[in-house]
Amino acid sequence: MITLYGAPRTRSTRVSWLLEELGLPWQYQYINFAKGDSQQPDFLAISPSGKIPILIDENQSTTDTPITLSESAAICTYLVETYNIESETPLFIPKKGTPNSALYHQWFSFIICEIEQPLWTLAKHKFALPKAIRQENMQTVAIWEFDKAAAVAESWVPEQDYLLGDTLSIIDILLTHTLQWATKSGFTIPSKLAQYRDRLSTRPALARALKKEETTATKVA
Description:
4 strands; 8% strand
């Protein structure tokens, strides 16, 4: 069994979306931050930072201890490397040492380090950090950083299909989710990036993932 710990429309959505794309059976454990779920001893035992997502995969364990992973990008990479070959519609994984592989890793790094970074910086200074060390002017900094990164991504993103051709890959999931996050946070999305976000946001697997997340959260609440 695969279990995902998360909250709706957070980085855990990247993982739930991918699980649905791969057609894997999985269960969802909602972590309600407002009720202090993230600081409970049983959750801290698997996530010492108190953060989500956390994935527990009992299917691949060779011992009594299941595989436990944090960090959404790492989890997505693990899932594709482990289960992609079994999927009815496999995601795109470029052959090592090819131009597509170079572009894949460039996008992967750029999404996490450049496009997402100002969004998380802003979020930390809004609610995640202790109030005493939050900086009120961080929004100006975050907007400037995001706009700069988004302009680069705008010059790279194709006008149709996916980032590396005609097949979905992890980087499409990461970028689409990050752009949705930016949109929700009030950042301005350049036109080609906005069109790309809208195309990818219509995938049925994403709709199924969001429904499962929100249904579970509603039941628990």
